[in-house]
Specification:
Blueprint (H helix, E strand, L loop, with lengths): L9 H9 L9 H12 L5 E5 L2 E5 L7 E7 L12 E3 L2 E3 L3 H17 L6 E7 L10 H8 L8 E4 L7 E3 L3 E10 L14 H14 L6 E2 L2 E2 L3 E9 L9 E10 L5 H11 L4 E8 L9 H10 L3 E3 L6 H6 L4 E3 L14 E3 H16 L4 H11 L6 E4 L2 E4 L25 H19 L5 E5 L9 H15 L3 E4 L5 H11 L4 E6 L13 E5 L2 H11 L3 E3 L4 H15 L9 H18 L42
Parallel strand pairs: 3-6, 3-7, 7-16, 8-15, 20-21, 20-24, 21-22, 22-23
Antiparallel strand pairs: 1-2, 2-6, 4-5, 5-17, 8-16, 9-13, 9-14, 10-11, 12-13, 18-19, 19-23
């Protein structure tokens, strides 16, 4: 088995990596060497999935940073072994991206006390179809291993920061006609001629150039293929123009597709391929500190890279690595050794220097100008006096065989079961608690935010822990009030495409994949609910509780008086939004009371309806 010397300098280590051939789907030897070298380091916890190797520090730092790079290359093209000439290292993978991998391994070996906790990911199969991509597979099977506040993908960028990336999609725009003999063309309709309007629309397109985190992205809409025709003497009845749309990362894939569909209406538009963009996230403290440390100009990434996978996990990411991306996949691929060494030096400075200035102020504003020690136990976050002294003593080593089983429904069932187990284990000894629901969009200067803080404080004064959805806005306010009052502040987060994660006032935090598991935790461990102003999510949580109480699924909260007030309020809200007579043409599907005209008291005679009697109650 080939070996790697992590005590060597980054250039020598790059040569060692390059000389281990690792064409996509054949990364076993290089993954073996990387795993063996990292397992020899006592300050790291190492795990392996297939030919993807993950190493983590667990120092209880406030923030976690991921450094990631792929181990595979395109096929060999008479460009191995490596050679060093006049400060330039030549060979397959020197640029894309074993120079970056060498920097990752050097930092993993030598940084034993970084200011952030670190996760090093060296993954397989980036250069081929997405279904094999090691980072994608890891994000699906073990997303907890990729939980972080910021990520650096060591893709070649000429050692300057390229932030985020644009999304991409391809569609087929189809025009139709009617076949006819070309000698009697007036008897048919030429679909290729009809495509002229589609092409003219592409010529007339004016790209959107949104500015995100100070970076100007540049969208594109271009024809990449045109096909049509039946025979040399037949008018074609179909023509397809294949269009590629590059969209800025402030748009989702659904929004981008909606734009393209509308732009080419009324023609038929069929989606054939899509990948999301990635927000730059330069407003995050870790990102700001990173920019300050590496210096230079920050550029937007117009192409697509795996930073989009981190964005899908809620982790802002940038591209930063040695090598010119224009040399990737070329026979003459090479990298200046000065760029490799400079990248290592800049990353080392960033990862060993406490944030100051803007980044430091942002940290202080969030947590009262001091760092908060945190501990991560799988998906569970513990802070302050909620941190226990236990460690994970056993690591489960997977086999090197096929990994298709991690994408099947039975395995998803096990993940669902694991979420229940983690939630029950984290909250079983919580004691009396009240759940507070409210909008994630409530700003700190709104009255509802101050109200949330006061609610959290008063609940703690009354002897309750506070449980929220763990997000910003009103949820953050309630967590903050509870934490500042010295109580237990719990956040039950949920995996969403562009959420920022748990707020910093959660002393115990759990991130769930599944809404229904999260709702179960709210119901099981809350003795009551308080609902602050909010939107659809808040209403969903409110009516979940109302339904469970009304149907007798929960029998121990809230008390009779609270139930009555809650149900009366819900009935009034439902009555206010009930369709008027004549709006619903399916009259037979209405409840009987919906056919009567209601006065202000709920009935024509002014009598107010009583909420339905609940059975199985405990008083």
């Amino acid at each position: 088995m080939p070996t790697l010397d992590l005590t060597a300098d980054a250039v020598t280590l790059t040569r060692q990596l390059v000389d281990i051939e690792s064409v996509s789907r054949d990364e076993g030897p290089i993954a073996d060497a990387v795993e063996a070298a990292l397992r020899a380091l006592p300050h790291l916890v190492v795990e392996r999935r297939g030919n993807t190797v993950v190493a983590r520090t667990e120092l209880g730092r406030r923030e976690r940073v991921v450094l990631a790079g792929h181990l595979d290359t395109v096929p060999v093209n008479d460009n191995l072994p490596s050679r060093l000439e006049d400060g330039i290292l030549h060979g397959l993978g020197t640029c894309d991206m074993k120079g970056g991998d060498a920097v990752i391994l050097r930092l993993a070996a030598t940084l034993t006390e970084p200011v952030h906790d670190l996760t090093f990911v060296l993954y397989e199969c980036e250069e081929i179809d997405s279904q094999f991509n090691g980072l994608r597979l890891l994000s699906e099977s073990d997303p907890a291993l990729l939980v972080a506040d910021f990520a650096v993908l060591m893709e070649p960028s000429n050692a300057v920061v390229e932030a985020g990336c644009q999304g991409t999609l391809r569609v087929e725009v189809r025009t139709t006609g009617e076949r006819a003999h070309s000698a009697r063309s007036w008897r048919g309709v030429n679909a290729i001629h009809a495509a002229a309007d589609v092409l003219q629309r592409l010529r007339d397109y004016r790209p959107r150039k949104p500015v995100i985190d100070g970076l100007e992205y540049h969208e594109g809409l271009n024809a990449v293929f045109v096909r049509g025709g039946v025979a040399g003497n037949v008018l074609p009845d179909e023509c397809v123009v294949e269009v590629n749309h590059r969209f800025a990362p402030d748009r989702s894939e659904e929004e981008a597709l909606a734009f393209v569909t509308d732009y080419f209406a009324p023609y038929e538009v069929t989606l054939t391929d899509t990948a999301p963009g990635a927000l730059p996230g330069l407003d995050r403290p870790a990102a700001r500190a990173f920019i300050d440390a590496v210096g230079g100009e920050v550029n937007p990434k117009f192409g697509w890279t795996d930073v989009a996978r981190f964005t899908a996990l809620g982790v802002p990411a940038v591209n930063f690595g040695p090598g010119d991306p224009m040399l990737a996949h070329k026979q003459e691929e090479h990298v200046p050794v000065a760029q490799v060494l400079r990248c290592e030096e800049q990353l080392r400075a960033w990862l060993t220097t406490e944030p100051t200035g803007t980044a430091g102020q942002a940290v202080g504003q969030n947590r009262g100008n001091h760092r908060v020690k945190a501990k991560f136990k799988g998906p569970i976050v513990q802070r302050r006096d909620q941190i226990d002294g236990s460690t994970t003593d056993q690591r489960l080593l997977d086999s090197r065989g096929p990994t298709d089983w991690v994408h099947t429904d039975p395995w998803r069932v096990l993940r669902i079961q694991a979420e229940f187990v983690e939630g029950f284990g984290a909250l079983a000894e919580l004691g009396s608690a009240v759940a507070v629901f409210g909008s994630a969009r409530t700003s700190t200067d709104e009255p509802a935010y101050a109200q949330g803080i006061e609610v959290g404080r008063k609940l703690v004064d009354a002897g309750f822990a506070v449980i929220t959805g763990g997000g910003p806005g009103a949820m953050e306010a309630a967590n903050r009030g509870a934490s500042e009052a010295g109580g237990v502040s719990v956040g039950l987060g949920i995996e969403l495409p562009f959420e920022a994660g748990l707020n910093d006032w959660c002393d115990v935090g759990i991130n769930f994949r599944y809404f229904f598991v999260r709702k179960t935790m709210f119901v099981k461990y809350s003795q009551g609910f308080i609902v602050l102003p909010g939107g659809m999510g808040t209403l969903d949580e409110l009516f979940e509780a109302v339904t469970l109480v009304q149907t007798g699924k929960v029998t121990e909260f809230p008390g009779r008086a609270a139930r009555r007030r809650l149900l009366v309020g819900a009935h009034r809200l439902a009555a206010r939004h009930r369709p008027r007579r004549g709006q619903d043409r399916c009259e037979r599907h209405r409840p009987a009371h919906a056919h009567r005209r209601r006065g202000r008291g709920g009935r024509a005679d002014g009598h107010r309806p009583r909420p339905p009697r609940l059975t199985g109650e405990r008083h």
